[in-house]
Amino acid sequence: MKVLSITMLAAMFLFTAACSSSEADTSSSSTETTANTGGQENVKDDDSQQDVVKVAVGSKDHSTLVAALKQADLVTSLSNAGPFTVFAPTNAAFDKVDKATLTALMTDEKKADLQNILQYHVTVSALIADYLQDGQVLGMVNGDNVTVSIKNGKIMLNNSATIIASVPASNGIIHVIDGVLLPPSK
Predict the structure, then answer these.
(1) What three-state secondary structure class fits 134?
(2) What is the CB neighbour count within 10 angstroms for residue 109?
(3) Contact, 70 vs 100, CB < 8 A?
(4) What is the pTM of this model?
(5) How many CB atoms lie within 10 A of CB 52?
């Protein structure tokens, strides 16, 4: 009887160990698969509110901004939880930038400059337009500041770009602007 009990316990132990090993192998391979497929930007969810990147991707007026975010490797960062306030220049705003300058910024050699410019369009908070005040200074992700002014009911940033629309997102808010903000020279 004692031998039978020991045999049964050993069999159960081996069976449990084999199952655990199989489950561990399965979970590690699915973890590897997940890790190789990208970050938060690759999550498919058609039911929830879209994050700031997905909103921009869905806008025909922001294709230049989306291309720049991809070139600067900032898609994953802006797809995370946030909250973010993104001042998003339209394609028409990018058209005001010298073509040669814009083309140069979209190269690997100028990626750091492009990241600096794009990060100058983002602050870590969710500020609706009603919260912005004349003279308010916003700290941007790149470490520089943007100054808000209100003239004739229009909200301007650094006296060079006007907010023309605002769109809520799951991880913040997007303020569509009619100009590209350039960080101060260092």
Answers:
(1) coil
(2) 8
(3) no
(4) 0.73
(5) 27
Residue 92 vs residues 12, 31, 61, 97: alpha-carbon distances, Å: 69, 42, 8, 9
Main-chain phi, psi angles of 125, to 5 degrees: 175, 170
C-alpha distances (whole Å) from 6 to each of 1, 16, 22 are 9, 15, 24
Q: What is the mean pLDDT of each run of 10 residues along the chain (186 residues)?
A: 41 40 42 45 59 85 91 86 91 93 93 94 93 96 96 94 93 94 88
Contact in structure between 65 and 88 (CB atoms under 8 Å): yes
DSSP readout, 35-72?
HHT-SGGG---SSSPP-HHHHHHT-GGGHHHHHHHHHT
Structure tokens at 141: 């992700």
